[in-house]
């Protein structure tokens, strides 16, 4: 009894910071080996045409399958990968793997399916970023306009000449650019007219409540109209219910993504999904 008490007292007084930084260091050293140990995998989530429900693209979503930690989701490790710079080699792997997957789908289905890849600020600011992207596209044999890079408003916030220049280079090369999590980051909208974006992805926090909150419905409607008048297409993220799809159709939202259509799927499951839905779509 006394022993037990002593132990928990000790644990209680253990400096919290030490524990946190130990965990961080351990995660960092595991992450350093994860690429060579092949622990990363991509899941793919369908992006469909809102009107028809037909697949047009997929978003590549990173997973880290580590023997001691299990399946680690990106929100748990991307921030550390950013801080340590490991996101640069990891992000390069994601780009190559994603482009290769889309080329495989072309071979198996005969269809040009777009592939969207998330890019974090540290990756984007790396001097080799543009050539990493273009290499991944050309070495896989993908069409440039089948790749869409998803960039958050947080990244655009710096408003620097470098950001503008990189976006211009990628756009000139024919790569598509989208604003991810639109509406959550940055309220000034002027960047939309000066940067060559193709697509706005409406953040799921707005989409989630379109049927419950009149304000959210108004915001989504306004974003769709604004995007269209600027010549951008719109993807609604986080579509979970059928009622939302009716709303989005009615408001003219071009594309939709969310659990209602499919969760992000491991490669094999995505390919099965592809074959099944393709058969249905052709029927
Ligand atoms: P994101 O790019 O906004 O991706 C969408 C997230 O919403 C994904 O979470 C997806 O699983 C989830 N989601 C999709 N449909 C629904 C739905 O209907 N309801 C709900 N509640 N959620 C839905 P995930 O896979 O955990 O990824 C989280 C974030 O991690 C991503 O947000 C993205 O910012 C980042 N991320 C993922 N993969 C990569 C990557 O390869 N590189 C970088 N830099 N970031 C990545
Ligand atoms: Mg995204
Ligand atoms: Mg363009
Ligand atoms: Mg998003």
TrEMBL record:
Domain of life of the native organism: Bacteria
Domain EAL per the UniProt entry, residue ranges: 24-278
Entry protein name: cyclic-guanylate-specific phosphodiesterase
Gene source species: Marinobacter nitratireducens
Full-protein residues shown: 530 to 812 of 812
């Amino acid at each position: 009894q006394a022993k037990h008490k002593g132990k928990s007292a000790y644990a209680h007084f253990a400096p919290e910071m030490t524990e946190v930084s130990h965990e961080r260091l351990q995660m960092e050293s595991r992450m350093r080996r994860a690429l060579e140990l092949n622990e990363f995998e991509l899941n793919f989530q369908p992006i469909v045409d809102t009107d028809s429900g037909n697949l047009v693209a997929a978003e590549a979503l990173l997973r880290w399958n580590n023997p001691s930690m299990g399946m680690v989701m990106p929100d748990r490790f991307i921030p550390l990968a950013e801080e340590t710079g490991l996101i640069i080699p990891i992000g390069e792997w994601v780009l190559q793997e994603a482009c290769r997957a889309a080329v495989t789908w072309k071979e198996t289905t005969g269809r040009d399916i777009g592939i969207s890849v998330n890019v974090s600020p540290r990756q984007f600011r790396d001097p080799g970023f543009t050539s990493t992207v273009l290499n991944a596209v050309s070495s896989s044999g993908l069409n440039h306009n089948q790749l869409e890079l998803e960039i958050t408003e947080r990244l655009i916030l710096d408003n620097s000449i470098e950001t503008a220049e990189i976006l211009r280079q990628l756009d000139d090369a024919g790569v598509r650019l989208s604003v991810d999590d639109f509406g959550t980051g940055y309220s000034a909208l002027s960047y939309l007219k000066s940067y060559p974006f193709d697509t706005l992805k409406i953040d799921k926090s707005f989409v989630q409540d379109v049927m419950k909150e009149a304000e959210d419905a108004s915001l989504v409607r306004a974003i769709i109209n604004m995007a269209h008048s600027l010549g951008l297409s719109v993807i609604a993220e986080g579509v979970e219910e059928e009622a939302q799809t009716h709303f989005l159709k009615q408001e003219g939202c071009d594309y939709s993504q969310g659990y209602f259509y499919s969760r992000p799927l491991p490669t094999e499951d995505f390919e099965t999904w592809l074959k099944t839905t393709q058969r249905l779509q052709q029927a």
